[in-house]
């Protein structure tokens, strides 16, 4: 420990010597889910570059984060192995560059704006189910069938619980070809398996042998595999535009190209098998459900606390959808470019980014910004520090969606590389367009349909394991169906 603290090549980097001498503190912090409270403090105390473990350095400097994620594009650390679902390397976990390149090339077009247009009806279907459930509770014609839900006073809705369920259902529809219908009840097994899988991944980060005591539950992957099989067995009528179909078609095209002799250079070592498709769809569930749901919840939380901003957003939405027939949902075409809606979402992701640090591995001795990092150092780009910096975001702790709208912002324009909710560089979030589409459509539908009011004095403390959650599992909003004008 003494040698780690004082004689290690990283010892000139500022930080608490005791913390720097062992991984114990990092493990305790991460397992307690409180890392988001501690890291801002650590950076406040020691500056933008802080040693937080024997070979771990947290980096909150704009130019260094750009260097790590974009310019040099350092590889993901071995810790991403915990995301190898059932031992299968995938888009999220891949550390092998050629595997990764091949997989991203195959999957990325499915997340292109053009293809995503075709999944809009699936998102609308899930939103309609949500509105029906909320209406049922508000009119008293339905009590929630979710076993874990508390009965609330009339007119109050646990919006966090609904956002978690809605996000699962949306990914179910888009990636597996079927909703899990968790907005209605808790019956579907996959969301339960997902919860268990995420807990196991987190534990394995620090206690790798735990997988022998608490082995991976493969029924999660089996479900993905069954969906692939069923879709392939279905006739032309069974086709539907979604991520699953896209991946199946990409596989067919890949095989055709390969048989025709035009094999892609990067696929020489990898075949995109049915199993791989099933694994990737499960990865979308792991990476895409909790992230979108927490941002939708935070956005609604911020809006009910700032009723003036809620009114402003509603006016924007009403204007954009003025010609819509009564009861219809906003279409993506109508809302995708609305500046205030986008500002509200961006501002939530600035203040509460779901991914805290994005670990990268130094694969050869290097000097970045006058700091020497020996091979084997883990760098933790830590975007939240930039997001909360007064230098880049004046009145940084305030929720000000206007800062994202050049004509309305009282501040200088947001600078490049100061905002990283979706990471950056080659490993940025592949689901970014889908996430923005889901969040815009859901928030637009809720804000247009309901009057919403704050229920004061609620606990809002967060727990952050892989993604953040609210410790109480609940955030209550008073909701009332809006009177049609
Ligand atoms: C608000 C919503 C979301 C946020 C803030 C978010 C954020 C991120 C971040 C920060 C990363 C980089 C992680 C790392 O390098 O460790 C990432 C990667 C990824 N995300 Fe998202 N994400 C969101 C939604 C989604 C959705 C909806 C999907 C898919 C349906 C998705 C799929 C992925 C995948 C597959 C990767 C790995 C990409 C790669 O390494 O090439 N994400 N996301």
UniProtKB/TrEMBL annotation:
Keyword line: Heme, Iron, Metal-binding, Monooxygenase, Oxidoreductase
Gene3D superfamilies the record matches: Cytochrome P450
Residues noted as binding heme in the record, renumbered to the chain: 429
Transmembrane segments: none
GO molecular function: heme binding; iron ion binding; monooxygenase activity; oxidoreductase activity, acting on paired donors, with incorporation or reduction of molecular oxygen
InterPro entries from the UniProt entry: Cyt_P450, Cyt_P450_CS, Cyt_P450_E_grp-I, Cyt_P450_sf, Cytochrome_P450_monoxygenase
Keyword Iron-sulfur set for record: no
S-adenosyl-L-methionine in keyword set: no
Domain of life according to the entry: Eukaryota
Leader sequence residues: none
PROSITE patterns on file: CYTOCHROME_P450
Required cofactor names: heme
Family, per entry: Belongs to the cytochrome P450 family.
Name of the protein: Cytochrome P450
The organism of origin for this protein: Lobosporangium transversale
């Amino acid at each position: 420990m003494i040698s780690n603290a004082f004689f290690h090549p990283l010892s000139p980097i500022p930080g608490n010597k005791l913390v720097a001498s062992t991984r114990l503190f990092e493990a305790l912090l991460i397992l307690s889910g409180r890392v988001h409270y501690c890291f801002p403090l650590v950076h406040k105390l020691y500056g933008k570059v802080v040693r937080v473990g024997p070979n771990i350095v947290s980096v909150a400097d704009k130019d260094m984060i750009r260097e790590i994620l974009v310019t040099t594009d350092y590889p993901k650390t071995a810790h991403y192995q915990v995301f190898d679902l059932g031992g299968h390397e995938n888009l999220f976990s891949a550390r092998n560059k050629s595997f990764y390149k091949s997989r991203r090339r195959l999957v990325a077009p499915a997340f292109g704006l053009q293809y995503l247009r075709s999944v809009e009806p699936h998102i609308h279907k899930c939103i309609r189910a949500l509105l029906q459930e909320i209406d049922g509770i508000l009119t008293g014609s339905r009590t929630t069938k979710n076993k874990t839900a508390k009965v609330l006073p009339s007119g109050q809705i646990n919006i966090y619980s609904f956002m978690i369920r809605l996000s699962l259902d949306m990914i179910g529809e888009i990636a597996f070809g079927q909703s899990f219908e968790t907005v209605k009840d808790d019956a579907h097994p996959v969301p339960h398996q997902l919860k268990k899988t995420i807990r196991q991944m987190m534990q394995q980060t620090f206690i790798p042998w735990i997988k022998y005591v608490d082995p991976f539950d493969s029924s999660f992957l089996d479900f993905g595999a069954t969906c692939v099989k069923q879709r392939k067995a279905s006739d032309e009528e069974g086709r539907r535009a979604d991520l699953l179909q896209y991946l199946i078609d990409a596989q067919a095209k890949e095989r055709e190209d390969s048989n025709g002799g035009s094999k892609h250079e990067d696929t020489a070592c990898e075949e995109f098998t049915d199993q791989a498709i099933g694994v990737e769809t499960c990865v979308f569930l792991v990476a895409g459900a909790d992230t979108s749901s927490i941002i939708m919840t935070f956005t609604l939380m911020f809006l009910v606390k700032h009723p003036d901003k809620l009114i402003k957003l509603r006016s924007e939405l009403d204007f954009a959808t003025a010609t819509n027939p009564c009861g219809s949902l906003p279409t993506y075409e109508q809302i995708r470019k609305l500046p205030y809606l986008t500002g509200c979402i961006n501002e939530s992701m600035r203040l509460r980014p779901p991914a805290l640090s994005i670990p990268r591995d130094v694969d050869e001795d290097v000097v970045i910004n006058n700091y020497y990092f020996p091979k084997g150092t883990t760098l933790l780009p830590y975007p939240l520090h930039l997001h909360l910096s007064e230098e880049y975001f004046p009145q940084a702790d305030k929720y000000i969606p206007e800062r994202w709208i050049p004509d309305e912002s009282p501040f200088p324009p947001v600078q490049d590389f100061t905002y990283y909710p979706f990471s950056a560089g080659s490993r940025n979030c592949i689901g970014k367009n889908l996430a923005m589409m889901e969040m815009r459509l859901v928030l637009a539908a809720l804000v247009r349909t309901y009057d919403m009011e704050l229920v004061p004095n609620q606990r809002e403390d967060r727990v952050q394991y892989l993604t953040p959650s609210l410790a109480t599992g609940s955030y209550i909003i008073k909701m009332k169906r809006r009177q049609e004008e």
